[in-house]
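=== Structure Prediction Worksheet ===
Name of assembly: unnamed complex
Input type: mixed (protein and possibly other molecules)
Chain count: two
Listed entries:
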Amino acid sequence: MNRPTADPTLAVEVRGLTREYTTRSFFGTVSRVTKALDGIDFSVKKGELFGLIGPNGAGKTTTVKILTTLLTQTSGEAFILGLDIRKDLYEIRRRIGIVFGGERGLYNRVSALDNLRYFSDLYGVDPAVAKLRIPELLKAVGLADRADERVEKYSRGMKQRLHIAKALVHDPELLFLDEPTIGLDPGGARDIRNMIREMRSQGKTILLTTHYMFEAEELCQRVAVISKGKIVALDTPSELKKGVRDIAVIELRTYGATTEYVDRLKQLPNVVRVVAELDSEVQTIRVQTPLGADLLSQVVSALPPDAKIIDRTIKEPTLEDAYLRLVEE
Amino acid sequence: MGSLEGLTPGKRIDSDLGRRSQVIKACIVLTAKLFFADPQWIIPSIIAPFIFTLVAFFLFGGQATTGSFLLYLVLGSGLMGMWGTTIYGSSNSISFDRWNGTMESTLAAPIPLSWIALGRVLFNTFEGVINAVFILVIGLVWFQVGFGLVNPGLFFLASVSTFLSLSAFGLLMCTVILLSRKGGFITNSMEIPVYIATGTMFPVTILPIVALPFAFLLAPTWGIEAIRLSALPGYTGLATSYWVDLGILAAETAAYIGLAFALFKRVEAYAKRNGTLEEY
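=== Predicted Assembly ===
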């Protein structure tokens, strides 16, 4: 019998969820126990777009795997749409959709149409309904013209759109999107974000994990920050940003900035944190400081003589700034 | 890009039996498409059987004086080919998802993994049938083996039963291979012992007595016996009757299926506990 959660308005309810991974030696004795999740609690309301953000290894994917019934928890409990993840796994699986990031999850040697037909059958969709729904979905994700082509010929962005169609093929109420824009070019990522917005406007509940803070800020109504297996903050993006309202951000776009320059900036008084992207031809450097514009002259004068500033702006802190403070504390 | 608005609602099939048969059918279709999508399918299905048949004929060529002995060889080669394809294809039916990156999607489906494996194993055994049929064609056309069966009806029944027993054995092997990332070694090491133990080329009766219990526990041994009894005039083999062979075959096949389904439950629970099934 299904056990209802205390609150029927919740799509996801997690209480004290813990997951440990045990590494065993050749002789079967326990050599190491790693706590991937350490008693996390959170809930997602029906119809909400909820974000789970955190660094690599923080426990995001472990959380998604447990909630999608692919992994068992060591302790604690969780309910999906009022159903217990330990007892009602097939009913839960029927009512949820999962999008895994990256290249995983599709049969590349057959067409998009074959992939969708297969997963539609696996989820028990009435064949008469599937006959209508699959072409509609392919059209919705912009793949109708290439539906008969082998998936191996698709670009990364097209594959990810197919992933979305696959997750929607059985019309789930709740979607788990595990880093859906990872590795996509800006245009492909924008397409996926637009689809996520559309899914939400259709009344779907969405749990999104992402590395990209601007994505969480742009899409999510509430965000949980997870670090070292614990939830260190849970609130709306605007409330989370209030945690860093004591600072401003000097953002520079430069030519020729080096790691030595970044190190020099970190040594300046009143610099809280420096985040730099130095890989491309034009570098972006963000300096968090309580002094705001008053620090600008020192930041500029520290620049090497052969480097050049393209533009500089004083910005309000973003969710990324709040996130960095939370995970580094 | 289109819009997600106005999509046909995703109504599901109500009956449990209907859903299960839909999954089996879907898995057969997908496995077939994946099989034929790779042009290398001709290697196990046409080139390998050709080599099997040639080896068998040249090995026994000097002794092949009667038509029924030639048919014995053709049937043996056919079953060897069928077994080789089945053991390789079936046992990898699910572990294929491990290296293809689709294991999570497969495990996330709202159906026990055993039903997904069953559909795939059925097609993989059918690949073995393609192989066996090709061997028969080579025997009939090239070596001009007479195909005068003692009882075509019983031959057909024994062949279908052997097909099902091979599928059941493949399903069982599937669970063993799922538990180990190096499961391919188990598959490869099973191929030759089973050729010998099931009597595809040599009568089981010439095996050492210690090997006989293993041979008798393999359902295909009884399938091959029943096929030969229904095909070859004067064949005595294990000195059992056709129906006894078929009865033992059915009982052992049922035991394999029962054991495979029970093991699949354990494998799924193990996979959920350890979270390592999708790792390759």
